[in-house]
Amino acid sequence: MYEDRNEIKLQKSEEMIVLAVEMYEAIGMFVKLFDKLLRRERIDNYSIIVCESKFADFGEFLKKEKRRSDILVSIEAKGGLYALICPQTEADGDYYFFKRLSDELYRAHSEEIRAAVLSVSAGLDDIWDCIIDIMDAYIELKFDDKIQDIVLKTRR
After folding, report:
1. Closest among 43, 102, 99, 54 to 78, alpha carbons compared
2. Rg (CA), the chain
3. Which of 83, 77, 84, 82 lies closest to 56 in space, CA to CA?
4. For residues 30 and 62, what is the distance between their CA atoms, to the nearest angstrom?
5. DSSP H helices in the chain
6. How many angstroms separate the CA atoms of 154 and 81, rounded?
7. Nearby residues of 94 by Cβ (< 8 Å), 6 or more positions away
8. Which pLDDT tens digits describe the chain residue by residue (156 residues)?
């Protein structure tokens, strides 16, 4: 697909630019709300988890497994790409949540899940900063030569 995987950057890939805009449209208002809650000290942090799986009922699986306070958003349902916006969740909590989801999906349906996670504990100057950070993590997950199932990033 790509000759040089090191050249896959947000600014160099039409597919990733379109996905960044779709992600902004899907989760932007939620991120703005959580940013306001963070600035008003009603929450200490939040996380954005962009996850994908080839499992046909992945959205329903996530809906069953998430906490009541987590927001589930479909980014590309056909492609199995979803976002979870999770209040009061730090990077290590995201990791264990992801591992629990991954283990459950594999045990129940022999399917795998991959996720890019951005943990946010400081107010944003611009929501696009957050979208670019999570897109960079997703690009690393999707196109990095290392075999990995989760990429963790933080914004402090």
Report:
1. 54
2. 15
3. 77
4. 18
5. 14-39, 58-65, 91-109, 127-143
6. 21
7. 47, 49, 86, 117, 119, 152
8. 444 445 556 666 788 888 889 999 999 999 999 999 999 999 999 999 999 999 999 999 999 999 999 999 999 888 899 999 999 887 678 888 888 999 999 999 999 999 999 999 998 899 999 998 998 888 888 776 566 788 888 888
| Pairing mode, strands 81-87 and 71-76 | antiparallel
Q: What share of the chain is helix, strand, coil (3-state, %, to 5)?
A: 50, 20, 25
Helices (H) then strands (E): counts for the chain? 4, 5
Neighbouring CB atoms inside 10 A of 22's CB total 13
Whether the predicted model's global pTM rises above the 0.85 cut: yes
Under the phi-then-psi rule, with left for phi > 0, alpha for psi from -120 to 50, and beta for the rest, what region is 41?
Answer: left
Check if the beta carbon of residue 44 is closer than 8 Å to that of residue 121.
yes
Nearest-angstrom CA–CA distance, 144 and 122: 28
